[in-house]
Design a protein that fits this description.
Methyltransferase, Cobalt-precorrin-4 Transmethylase, Domain 2, Rossmann fold, 3 domains, 5-stranded parallel β-sheet, 9 helices
């Protein structure tokens, strides 16, 4: 039985193709066909360089910053067969989400305009770096927590630090492993085993490992993922996901909702993903901080009129892994 022919190109449909470190050789037939059919190829310079000459479409590297430019680029090339390149799975911390959101915004703001005519995304994924890393490590994907530091503060890692926990970190670049090692040391997780997996799936794949306590490896390849086997150093107090962190977890001047009152307050507030808390008179920020620690989808704004306390709230938020708190 012969395989079905590829779907005909639709000039009003935006195609997103995931590509790995193995480049063209690792792409299935449908992804290759989409790239060859495209009149416009948009992607990072590294991704565009992986394509052979048979992909004759106009090559457009993403500008920086990327997000504000997306709507304009889609409007510029509307009516042409556009293919966007993404690293790995476009819908896993990738450009797929950004494109979906921008297209939805364009449709709402300019119904019927060129930017809004795309009926949706056609996504052709590639295995993500997380899938590759778990395959190399023998870790079940469903049991592995993932934290991305791409375009995000490194302190986001801190809310996921638990003794015996396995964690994958999507690196922002070559310097991320050293930055993570320093963060682990500073927060009592120096004995953690670190493994840096570079160029996963490609010919230059490599693994470097050591302990955070004495990490001195040179900068990694920019395309890397960190695997952490977390170990808490003796004497480091554990921090739970349950509201009611020890009072000693906070920097404060006495203006602090005490532990048991805080736990009861958060239980009554019952934070849920996507909900927004306004904490008026933040003090040390403890209520807002623990609201955000309840789930990464929670949002919070802390209002504090004293400038010294407002700065302290920001420090507490960063040290407890929720730098997204607005003060």
């Amino acid at each position: 039985m012969s395989p079905a022919p590829p779907a005909p190109a639709d000039p009003d449909r935006l195609t997103v193709v995931g590509i790995g470190a193995d480049g063209w050789a690792g792409l299935p037939a449908a992804s290759r066909q989409a790239l060859c059919d495209a009149e416009v190829l948009i992607g990072g310079a590294r991704q565009l360089a992986l394509l052979p000459d048979r992909c004759t479409g106009e090559r457009v590297p993403w500008p920086s910053p990327l997000r504000p430019a997306v709507a304009g680029l889609l409007a510029t090339y509307a009516g042409r067969r556009v293919c966007v390149l993404a690293s790995g799975d476009p819908m896993f911390y990738g450009i797929g989400r950004t494109l979906t959101e921008v297209l939805a915004e364009s449709a709402a703001d300019s119904a019927g305009s060129a930017a809004a005519r795309h009926p949706g995304l056609r996504v052709l994924p590639h295995p993500s770096s997380v899938s590759y890393a778990c395959a190399r490590l023998g870790w079940p994907v469903e049991d592995t927590e993932v934290v991305t530091l791409v375009g995000r503060p490194a302190e986001n890692l801190l809310r996921a630090l638990y003794d015996g926990h396995r964690l994958l970190v999507l690196s922002a670049g070559a310097g991320t492993p050293a930055e993570v090692a320093a963060l682990l040391r500073a927060h009592g997780f120096g004995p953690t085993r670190m493994r840096v997996l570079e160029q996963l799936g490609g010919e230059r794949e490599r693994l470097t490992e050591g302990l955070a306590a004495d990490w001195d490896a040179p900068p990694a390849d920019p395309l890397n993922v960190l695997a952490l086997d977390l170990v808490r150093a003796p004497g480091t107090p554990p921090l739970s996901t349950v509201p009611g962190l020890p009072d000693t977890a906070y920097e404060h001047d006495g203006q602090l909702t005490k532990r048991h009152v805080r736990a009861a307050t958060l239980a009554a507030l019952a934070p849920a993903p996507g909900e927004l808390l306004w904490d008026i008179g933040g003090g040390s920020g403890s209520i807002a901080v623990e609201w955000l620690r309840a789930h990464r989808g929670c949002r919070a704004v802390s209002v504090e009129r004293d400038a010294v306390r407002a700065e302290r709230i920001g420090r507490n938020a960063r040290s407890l892994g929720v730098p997204a708190l607005r003060v």
